[in-house]
From TrEMBL:
Pfam families: GH3, GH3_C, GH3_M. Keywords: Ligase. GO terms for cellular component: cytoplasm. InterPro entries: GH3, GH3_C, GH3_M. Residues 432-546 form the GH3 C-terminal domain. This is Jasmonic acid-amido synthetase JAR1. Residues 344-417 form the GH3 middle domain.
Amino acid sequence: MKFDPEEVIEEFEALTKDAGKVQEETLKKILEENGSTVYLQQWDLNGRTDPEIFKACVPLVTHKDLEPYIQRIADGDLSPVLTGKPITTISLSSGTTQGMPKFVPFNDELMESTMQIYKTSFAFRNREFPIENGKALQFIYSSKQFKTKGGLAAGTATTNVYRNAHFKKTMKAMQTPCCSPDEVIFGPDFHQSLYCHLLCGLIFRDEVQVVSSTFAHSIVHAFRTFEQVWEELVADIREGVISSRVTVPSMRSAITKLLKPDPEQADSIYNKCSGLSNWYGLIPVLFPNARYIYGIMTGSMEPYLKKLRHYAGELPLLSADYGSSEGWIGANVNPKLPPELVTYAVLPNIGYFEFIPLRVNLDGLEPTPVGLTEVKLGEEYEIVVTNFAGLYRYRLGDVVKIKGFHNATPELQFICRSNLLLSINIDKNTEKDLQLAVEAAARLLVDEKLEVVDFTSHVNVTTDPGHYVVFWELSGEASDETLQECCNCLDKSFVDAGYVGSRKVNVIGALELRVVKTGTFHKILDHFVGLGGAVSQFKTPRCVGQNNSRLLQILCYDVVKTYFSTAYC
């Protein structure tokens, strides 16, 4: 498999110059391949593939609308439910629906578009930061795949990508194979995998040209861990024997094949680390030939940039591409932009895209979605996706801003999730998820004849790691034992795959339950009315942001008891 970056760029230029026509052709292809499906048959398209007819016949949907169809596939229905070709793999989204992890279809076409995005952004990166015959230190971890009721393989979207043979071939063709063997990436213990990733990076330290992970927080977490274990890693390299902390036999044997005693290298690493001031510039010191650091750095990853820049020293931070478990949207083709300003050029052939303007019409109705080439500079939109994996006019729930155009395709800046409440890194929890968690925990109060009068939440990122804080006002006094149970129950009730995974490896800290005085939420109402609001319009804010300092002040001043979850200890 040969990879020619200039050829990839040429193809991208051609696609984006004719983005409107490519969009029409892409929709036609999607509908021709899947027109006979159970889902599309009900909308009477009768073989028509024209965008206007498609939009007139097929409704806008959310995951909730498609859930029964996806469930049929997961349960083993082999008829063409959403796609003409059978779906063999399910992705677990890092969001949830009604408190349950979300299933989305994953197929070969989605894998193809993943590789197209990877190649496109790599080609543009390679123009600015050329790398050749090097290795990538990738902090990637594959969760276990499991089988659905119908026998389909299910795992997180990244797991489905890493387990695909196409992924490894592409990485090799792009001359950035991963330092770590598969036994480390697919290892059953995150802490041991992380230690081995660091060790493999040091073994190949002169060949490492890229340091990356899916998300920025994973890179920060890796080097925070390095600060704790660096002397042990140096000892492993000096003696050529892996630490006893790695107990998984497959990992030990894979690393043993790579590890040879190297006292000279050990001394070099030891001296370099000893000479650092508060670990500033650690990454280029460890990996002198590294060209850049790469990962998703936008949205909820921005809080980690300060620490990442500390470790990176002068090395540039390059933000990865824009997509979700449901599919890809765009590639970062301006790699020199800092993460805070990064934009994503939409690839017009990987799906059919519509954009709902965020401004509300004067008649109060939701605005009509516009096409990819009809968006306006500076406007904000919610993205709607139709793709090759069975999603038709699917509201992604992401708000983006149009920052420019690459030829005829828009360059998007990610603004926020339209319905997201609690998020620290890859976790995604909505108001509904919080409500379900509070309801589950409140059941533990029934025996003491108590109830939750009101509640709100806050994401505390001033601690490291960040954690969720839930504020409760109760109808009376509960025992410490019961409230500790409630706190653990709240923590366990957030079942979103991104949250559970992050809690297990302590990238998100223990949930904190703070009980406030009777009357606290009344003070919040008074505060709202004092600002000129009407009592009839008042809704308790379900999440209090860091910038809402007055509300946080009211809540924190009235805290009478605090509990930290031990659910993941």
